[in-house]
Amino acid sequence: MLSITLLLVVILLALIGAHLADRWQKRQRRSQLRRKRLRIQLQDLEEILICLEDTLPERDVARRVNQEVMTLLEEIRLYERNSPEPWEARLRQAQAREAEWDTPQALNRLRESDSQIARAQQGLQKAGELLRRQHTRGQLEREALDLYLKQLSWAQLMISVISFVAQGHKAIRRGDYSVGQSFYKKAQSLLVGHAHPDPQRSQMIQELSQIILGERKALSPELMPEIGYNPA
Asked: What pLDDT, in 10s, does the model give residues 93-133?
């Protein structure tokens, strides 16, 4: 009788041990999956930030994205208790990044290929989706959301326009005037077909007409500070 009882106790302990081990393994898998998702989200946000730094002169949207980055880094640091130093270093970098934005930064909306244009515009589109989620969560007022979406929309348009103008400049510099004219007209067509209220839009349309007519060589620097390809 004692041996049967002992056997039952051993079996019960084995079952309990197996159950606890299974629960521990499930928690570990959930934790690993959560860490993986957090790292993917962090990578996406940091790519959005790089795009915003290049293309959007106003820094409010970038600051909001950077706040999301810091929140993710704080959460990742909790999961990485055994080696938090790399994440703490990245958190300090994110904090320092905001301080750097107090100083005006040069824009670089010029992209060298259609794929680069699409990737940059996708980054701005993702920033808009993030802002909409913040609005849904009650973290962003509707008025501010509309303002930020207009800024992102203008930046998306400018990526294409500036890139096409630059391609036109490159063609002119190598003596291919018909291709240069084609790119200038393509850039102007985008501006004409877009209803964005930014006052620079009409000025750019006018100056592109002057470029097409041969009355000027490049856009005004305040409209297009990306002057690296400007014809001599």
From this structure: 999 988 888 877 788 999 999 999 999 999 999 999 999 99
Res 44: pLDDT: 94
What is the sign of the dihedral through the CA atoms of 192, 194, 199 and 204?
Answer: negative
CA 208, 210, 214, 219 torsion-angle sign: negative
Are the beta carbons of 82 and 76 closer than 8 angstroms?
no
Q: Which of 222, 228, 231, 141 is nearest to 181 (CA)?
A: 231
Q: Are 74 and 94 in contact (CB under 8 A)?
A: no
CA distance 46 to 66: 8
H helices present in 101-199, as ranges? 114-136, 142-173, 177-192
- Can you read off the two tokens belonging to residue 138? 């009650």
Give 122-175 pLDDT, tens digit per residue.
999 999 999 999 999 999 999 999 999 999 999 999 999 999 999 999 999 999
HSE on the CB side for 148, CA within 13 Å?
25
Per residue, the 3-state secondary structure of 58-121, as one string, reads CCHHHHHHHHHHHHHHHHHHHHCCCCCHHHHHHHHHHHHHHHHCCCCCCCCCCCCCHHHHHHHH
**Amino acid at site 230:** N
pLDDT confidence of residue 168:
97
State CA 79 to chain mean position distance.
25
With residue 46 as reference, give the H or E element that holds it.
Answer: helix 2-55
| Residue 169 near residue 231, CB atoms below 8 Å | yes
Query: Residue type at 32?
Result: Q
